[in-house]
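Sample log: Putative very-long-chain 3-oxoacyl-CoA reductase.
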Amino acid sequence: MTLLWTFSVAFSNYQLFKDSLFSHKIVSYPRSSPSTYPNKPVCVITGATSGLGLSTACKLSKEGYVVVIGLMIGTNYIGPFVMTKLLLPLLESSHVSSKIVNVTSFTHRAVTNMQVDEGTVYGKKFLKSKQYPYAQIYEYSKLCLLLFSYELHRQLCQMGKSHQIFVNVANPRVVQTNIMREVPASLSWVAFFVLKRLRLLESSECGNDSIIDAALVPPGTSGAYFFWGKGRTINSSALSQDAKLAHELWETTSNLLSVTPFGN
């Protein structure tokens, strides 16, 4: 897992470097200041379970946003799904535009296949292991969050509300937290040492640039995957962009939680 995660973040940076240096197709967005708005806009931040959430909230509050932070219980997916469902009617009725920023991770690339059923959504299939597979659940939950975000964006477009509610995903920089609690301490130390040497390791105060970018992006931008600051976006994994899989996950989660599908 340590090697796979290190490779995943290295691959994402390679993609960013390649697009920037050779193809010039990299898409980046400027930040817009909410101070020009007549009313304070709302920004929903989900998926941030470490110091990134707090530091992001502080920065956005200074920018003039009303910030709502989702605290994850169990996984990084069910919480955002339910909270978004509860908040969506308020966002729809608001006379100002709203932004939903879901905080994901490069570790979603470690998931190469996925079967959507009640067991996977609830996480029951992971309980078959002798030890709690924290890393595997983390990767899976971040992939689910991506699939959910893209499906929400598509459904808002179909309902004609994409001009009012914008959904984007942010991948913050690598921060030295207890994310590798499952691996031996020696391997965790090596991974963080390598990332630090490659200058890919940041503090929580400096590692949230992409979250701020996604929150401050000009109105009209939705369905984008912000990666590592400077307004830059890249493509998430091919699996995360599977529209059929995303819809299956959406329907299964709604049925399990007895949640009425959005727009109904």
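Observation: The chain has one domain: 2-257.
Observation: Residues 29 and 231 are 5 Å apart (CA to CA).
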